Amino acid sequence: MKDSNFGNLGFYTLGIMYATFGICSFVSAPIVRKLGVKWCIVLGCMTHVLQTGSQILPLERAEHPTNQTLQNMYGFIYGMNICLSAINGFGNSILWVAQGQYIMECANESNKGTYFGIFWVFLQSSLIIGNVMAAFVVDNIPGSVFYMILTALALFCVFYFILFLWKPIPYTSDEETEKALIYS
After folding, report:
1. Which residue from 22, 61, 69, 85 has the fewest beta carbons nearer than 10 Å?
2. d(Cα 98, Cα 96) in Å, to the nearest integer?
3. Across 97-120, average pLDDT
4. pLDDT value at residue 176
5. CA distance readout (Å), 90 to 5, 11, 135, 151
6. HSE-up of 32 (CA within 13 Å, CB side)?
7. Domain residues of the chain, as ranges?
8. What string of DSSP letters covers 3-54?
9. SS3 93
10. Other C-beta atoms within 10 Å of 148: how many?
C-alpha cells in the first residue's frame, strides 16, 4: 500500500482484520452450527476473494497516474479496504471453525492427528510455494494483474468448494458395525 501512495493502509487493514477475527471468533461456532460447515467454508473463502480483489484498485491507481477517475477514488479505495478487511476478519473466524469441524467429521480417533497434520502441511507449504511463485511473477507482470489472477484463483476455489465439498460419511469401525447388527 505504501508503494501505491496509501501510507499505512496495509498495516491498518491487517490490524482490523485480525481484531475482527478475534472478536468474531466468540460467535463463530453458533454461526457454523446454524449455516453448516460447507456454507461457512464457502462464505469464509468468499470474504478472502473480496479482500484479495480489493487490492486491485490501489494498484491500478498507482499504475495509471493520469487516469483522473482512479485518482479521485482515493477515499473510496481507502474506505473499501478498511470495510473489506473487517468483513474478511468475520469470514476468517467462521472459516477456521468450519474447517476444523470438517476435518473432525472426516476423521476418527485413530487418524484425527494425521488429518490435522496433513492440513497444516498444506497450509504451511502454501506460504512457501506462494511466495516463491510471487517472487518470479511479480517482477514480470503489473501488480494489478497479479492480484486479478489471485482473485480469479480464489473465486475458482469457492466454486470448487460449492461443487465438491460434500458432507463426510461417518466412520464406523468393524466393531461398531458388529454391535449395531447385534442390537438391530
Report:
1. 69
2. 5
3. 89
4. 56
5. 27, 18, 30, 19
6. 23
7. 9-106+141-183
8. TTT-TTHHHHHHHHHHHHHHHHHHHHHHHHHHH-HHHHHHHHHHHHHHHHHT
9. helix
10. 18
Q: What digits encode the pLDDT tens for the residues 25-37?
A: 999 999 999 999 9
* Strand, coil or helix: 110: coil
Instruction: For residue 141, give the DSSP letter.
Output: S
Q: What pTM did the predictor assign?
A: 0.84
- At residue 184 the predicted structure's pLDDT band, cuts being 50, 70 and 90, is very low
Per-residue burial over 108-142, b = 16 or more CB atoms within 10 Å of its CB, e = otherwise:
eeeeeeeeeeeeeeeeeeeeeeeeeeeeeeeeeee
| Average pLDDT of the chain to the nearest whole number | 88
How is residue 162 written as a grid cell? 460449492
All 3 cell numbers of residue 71? Answer: 485518482
- What are the cell numbers at 53? 480483489
| SS3 of 71-92 | HCCHHHHHHHHHHHHHHHHHHH
